[in-house]
Amino acid sequence: MRLKYRLLSKGVPPRRTELVVSGWAGERMLPRDGATPQPWHCQPFTEGSLYGLELLYPYDTSCEVAGRNGQTEFVGDFSHEVVPGLVWPPFRIANPGHYSLGTLIDLQVPQGYALRIEPHPKFFNDRTGTTPVAVIGNLQTAWWPMYFFVTFKSPLDGQSHIFRRGEPYAQVIVVPARSEYEVEPMTPDEASSRETQARQIMRHRDEISRHRWISSDGFQFDDVYKQLSRRKSPDEDTGAETIGDSGT
Predict the structure, then answer these.
(1) What is the pLDDT of residues 175-203, one digit of tens each?
(2) Residues 223, 228, 234, 239: what is their CA dihedral angle, to the nearest 10 degrees?
């Protein structure tokens, strides 16, 4: 899928999301007996994290968005890098409990698709409360030619969200602009087939897996999901053991 962008002022192009081991994706601890499970050990999480594009903070001025006495305060002096034609500063209260940031990006998706904004994957592993929490939204950028803004949930009292130049603050993926779901129960034959498959996987789990280990908490893990994924999608392996350290 081809996406086209244009930038305003110091805008930074989006990039494929980078999984940062020895960082937000977890410690560089290989899955072996006695190890503590890490987020990057989980293939669904890894594939979900690497699926989209990350938006990078474009401003020279770092900003702390702080929750104080029920109010949201922005700590950062943007007076030296005003962008003409934009409401300034780039942070502002969007509505009660939320604030917004101008991205300095116009990202066009193909006709029939929408640009979906989501929290950056690092949010789900953050124990400091400093990662911005982007509010989900589908932008119809195929026909909306505007530099867009991202809305965030405001931090709670005593918490702060931190923005620094070049650091990711949200993730975007491209989805169909309209969706129609028909949810229905499986037929008896379909349900029986799925149950048979599930039992076969459990019966042959030791034969399918290539790696088994016991975590520091005594739980047993294996790579059955990854092995079956490789057989179904041999050209799309994103096994966790191939992911190295990466800087933000």
Answers:
(1) 999 999 999 999 999 999 999 999 999 99
(2) -20
| Angle at 53 (CA atoms; ends 50, 55), nearest 5 degrees | 130
Distances (CA, A) of 125 to 49, 122, 188, 230: 12, 6, 40, 26
Take residue 205 and report the two structure tokens written for it.
Answer: 């789990």
Distance CA 72, CA 6 (A): 31
Percent of the chain predicted with pLDDT > 70: 94
User: pLDDT per residue over 130-168, tens digit each?
Assistant: 999 999 999 999 999 999 999 999 999 999 999 999 999
Q: Please state whether 78 falls in left (phi above 0), alpha (psi between -120 and 50) or beta.
A: alpha
- Strand, coil or helix: what is 56? strand
Given a contact cutoff of 8 angstroms between Cβ atoms, the answer to whether 21 and 52 are in contact is no
- Say which amino acid occupies 120: H
User: Strand 220-222 to strand 168-176: parallel, antiparallel, or no bridges (unpaired)?
Assistant: unpaired
Q: Is residue 8 exposed (0-12), middle (13-18) or buried (19+ Cβ within 10 Å)?
A: middle
pLDDT of amino acid 233: 63
Superfamily of domain 4-17+52-176: Deoxyuridine triphosphatase (dUTPase) (2.70.40.10)
- Report H helices in the chain: 43-49, 188-203, 205-208, 224-232
Contact 182, 80 (CB under 8 A): no
The answer to whether the beta carbons of residues 173 and 66 sit under 8 Å apart is no
CB 19 within 8 A of CB 39: no
